[in-house]
Amino acid sequence: MRLPQARLEQLMDRFHELEARMESASAGVEIVRLAKEHAELRPVAQAARALMDARAGREELERLSADPDPDMAELARADLEDLDARLPGLEREIALLLAPRDADEKASAILEVRAGTGGDEAALFAGDLFRMYQRYAQEQGWKVEVESVSEGEAGGFKEIIASIEGEGVFGRLKFESGVHRVQRVPATEAQGRIHTSAATVAVLPEAEDVDIEIKDGDLRIDTYRSSGAGGQHVNKTDSAVRITHLPTGIVVTSSEKSQHQNRARALKVLKARLYQTQREALDSERSEARKTQVGSGDRSERIRTYNFPQGRVTDHRINLTLYNLPKIIEGEALDDVIGPLIAEDQAARLASLEQSL
């Protein structure tokens, strides 16, 4: 794919225009908006400049390769050969940056894992999935903080919600949204029979303050006593927080020991859910895709299957089958699944860009 020179020049003109406007802007809101666009465009402008310089260098080397001095011509031809080998990579780099992409690619994320069909085993599997993402996040250098948790009776989680902070979290984890199915002999199975259970995963981009505004009048905030283990503190302190967003009916809860922290955590999750609702309203196609992916948690709806007896993981969206389940479920080899999903997405984005040129 060869991008038109005029398109590259337009990018550079826009980048320089943003720099000039940032220097003259005085309103805080405008400065934030300009700075955000400038930061998003900077890697594109850098790639465009590198490609433009390479193209200009190629023209000069072509001229020098015809130099009457044979030594000069030979050196130019050697440099030209090296440059021709580099050019496709430079073209692909900027093409990927220009291809239609999720505006929240670099955002932090809210991870929600819930037990689906399968009773206690589904809760245990939800726990395994959460630990997989937790360990993967640690390997990436991301920060994981649990916002809300409901434990299963036999272990694992009925539901667990966590924030994962870091550069590009949503871009790497967004394809994890959907129903994950497990086939194995549960720890709760006395006769050694293989069971099939499911858990749902939702990955939402964490909303920044500039992305969505929540009015105090739209919230009903209730405090109540936490239930479950926790001794005297749980029994005597109304520290748990339930926030209801009245216009949408969305309800979020947090039940750690500090009421102040619970309020902040619940608001963070609420913002992410409202932002996702906003994204889906603006993009009905994405909304339909997400509904299809996440579904109801039934065994028959799945994006990925973890078959423990065969040590096999299959991602059904791209027909990918791997036989390193132990390393994947430990988070150590999760990139073996995420990488091909991202590559498939990049190929689709490049095809879309090529059609628009």
List keywords for this structure.
single chain, 357 residues, alpha+beta, Alpha-Beta Plaits, 2 domains, eight-stranded mixed sheet, three-stranded antiparallel sheet, 11 strands
What features would you describe in this structure?
The chain has 357 residues and is of the alpha+beta class. The protein folds into 2 domains: 94 residues, no CATH class; 202 residues, Alpha-Beta Plaits. Helices cover 51% and strands 20% of the residues. The protein is built from 10 helices and 11 strands. It has an 8-stranded mixed beta sheet, with helices on both faces. About 6% of the residues have low confidence.
Secondary structure topology:
Layout: H1 5-24, H2 28-64, H3 70-98, E1 109-115, H4 119-140, E2 143-151, E3 157-165, H5 169-173, E4 178-184, E5 195-205, E6 219-224, H6 231-236, E7 240-245, E8 250-254, H7 259-282, H8 284-294, E9 304-307, E10 312-315, E11 320-322, H9 325-329, H10 335-356
What is the string of SSEs from the N terminus onward? Answer: HHHEHEEHEEEHEEHHEEEHH
Which geometry do the CA atoms define? flat
The value of Rg in angstroms is 26 Å
State the CATH topology of the largest domain.
Answer: Alpha-Beta Plaits
**Biggest sheet strand line-up:** 2-3-1-5-4-9-10-11
Structural class computed from helices and strand pairing: alpha+beta
Question: Approximately how much beta-strand content do the residues carry?
Answer: 15-25%
**Residues in helices, as a percent range:** 40-55%
Number of strands: 11
**CATH architecture assignment name of the largest domain:** 2-Layer Sandwich
What value does the average pLDDT take?
A: 84
How many helical stretches? 10
**Sheet with the most strands, sense and barrel status:** 8 strands, mixed
User: What is the chains' assembly state?
Assistant: single chain
Overall tally of domains:
2
| Distance separating the two termini | 10 Å
The CATH class of the largest domain: Alpha Beta
State the low-pLDDT regions, or none: 229-236, 285-299
